Amino acid sequence: MASTSQPETPRRRRTTIVLAALALVVLALAGGWWLRHRSAGGAGGAGGSALIVGDQRGGVQALLRASGELDNVPYKIDWALFPAAAPLLEALGSSAIDIGGIGGQPFAFAYASGAKIKVVYAARPIDGPDRGRSSAIIVPARSPLRRVEDLKGRRIATIRGSAGQDLALRLLERHGLKPSDVTWVYLNNAEAKSALETGAIDAWSTWGAYVGYALIKDHQRAIGDARELPGQAGFYAANDHAIASKRAQIADFLARLSRARAWLADHRAEYARVLARETGLPEDVARFTVEDLRTAPAPVDDSLRSEQLDILNRYKAAGIIAKVPDLSGAFDSSFSKGQ
Prior knowledge:
CATH superfamily of the largest domain: Periplasmic binding protein-like II
CATH architecture of the largest domain: 3-Layer(aba) Sandwich
Number of domains: 2
Largest sheet: 7 strands, mixed
Number of strands: 12
Number of helices: 12
Order of helices and strands: HEEHEHEHEEEHEHEHEEHHHHEH
Strand order of the largest sheet: 1-3-2-4-11-5-12
Strand content: 15-25%
Distance between the termini: 47 Å
C-alpha cells in the first residue's frame, strides 16, 4: 500500500501519542527488537538465572504486580514487551525469550510456520456478558458498514495469522461470507489504526486495548465481535531450551499467574488502575480491557489439540498457511498437572 506524506496537525500529533501508549514503545517489528526491563525478583532460585518473559503491552506484568505476585520472587524476571503476538513468537522461537503469553490463533500460525515452541499453560474465558467484546471488527463512526455482511468487497486490516484474522474469518463464515469475499490488508495494529482514520481501509479486526480505545476515545463502531462466537483458549508457550533449563522457574511463574488470575475476579478495578499507570492507557480504556479478561486455568489436553486443528484448518482453507502441521510436539502437559 502506497503511503503519502501529510503535514503535521494537532490531530496527527494526538494519534502519534495514542499509538505510543497503546504499543508502549515504537517497536521495529521487522527487526525483531523489543523493550526489556527487570522486575524486583531475587537472584536465587533454580540455577539463579533470570526467566525472560514475553508480555503483550505489559498486561500480565501489571496483573502480577497488582496482585502481589511479583513480591518475593526467588529468581529474576526480565520482561520483554511486545505490541502483538507475532514479534513475541519470533523472539520465543529464536530463544531470545523463554516463555510468553499468546492467543491460540497466533500460536497455530507460528507453529505451522515451523516455530520450535510448546504450549505449557492454557486458560479459557469465563462466560459472562462481557466475554468476547474486546475482540472486534472496527469501522469508522460514519462508515456505511453496519453488519458483517456489509464487508463483502471491502478492505479489512489485521495481522496475518493473528487473533484478529481468525476472528474475522469466523465472523465472515457465520454471516455467510467466504475469505475471498474481502480484501485482506496486512498491517500491524499501529498502522491499521492510522489507515482506518485516513480511509485507506474499510475495517480493522483487532483485540484488547486497541478495541477499547477505538470505541471509547475515537468513537468508532464494532460491526461484529467475539460475543457471538464460542470462546477460545489462550496460552503460555515456551521453547525447548527454556523447558529443559528453567523448568523450576517456569513452574513457579505459572503458579503465580494462576493465583493472579484468581485474584482478578474480585479486583478488576484495582488491576485496571495499575494497568493504566504502567502502560499509559486511559483508565476507562484499561477498565474496558480488564472486563474481558476473566479466565480460568485449563488442562493442556486433547481439547486444545482439537481447537488448534480447527484454527489451522480455517487458516489452510483461507490460504494463510500451506498445510496443517502435525501437532504431536506442540504441547507439554507436565506443567498443567495439578491445576
